[in-house]
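tool=predict chain=A
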Amino acid sequence: MKAFLKRHSLVSFFILAFALSWYPWILALLRGRTSGPNPLGPLVAAIVGTAILLGRPGLREFFSRLGRWRVGVKWYAIIFSLPILVCLLAAALTLSFLPHAPISALSIEKIRELPERFLFILLFIGLGEEPGWRGFALPQLQKRFSPMVASLILAPVWALWHLPLMGNEFPAPIILPFLISVFGATFMLTWLFNETNGSVLLPMLFHATVNTVGAGLIFPLFAGTSVILLWWIYALIWLGAGLAVLSFTANKTTPLVSAPAIRAT
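tool=predict ok
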């Protein structure tokens, strides 16, 4: 079994990550209800996969990347400012196309909730997902493929992982733009991961910032047709930005810096 898992480490990780994430959804469906995925599934799958492949030395390296914070001030400026700028640009473009769209007022309570929301997303969603997708799967893929190709493989897997949220948290009109935004986020996170020497902490912080600013602040201000348009603009901005930064850095004369790959022995 161990030899099989080493030969098929990436496929085994995906299967385990989906099983550990989707079981609440499957159990809910059997009871005629609905539920989202367990965000901690990819983290647990990555820990199990790393332990099987590399044992304690591999786990030490894996966990060290979760706390790799010495990456330069500019990267913290990027991860905290870029999601805000993208949301504001998408909102401004939406209002330019629909100048009379009703917009809800931004309440003080919503602003006060942001730190608590950010911390919850960071420790539950960011910590649950990023060590799996970026900490385990991406290094595996980049052993064999370029960052762009690795991202194109990882993006649809990550998008499919969100299936329990389709039609529930994400209504039918915004499913497609949401999936496009997942591709854009995958490109951005690959770039961020590689450029910060394989830090998983920075993708976690970026993920938490994106969700906090978008779902927690900007998107609830819009409704009806305007929120659908906002989603499309938002998704296309992320897709274009992700493709641009990843294409630019992939063509540099200096190779991208990536985390040590998990090796099957």
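The first helix runs from residue 2 to 7. The mean pLDDT is 91.
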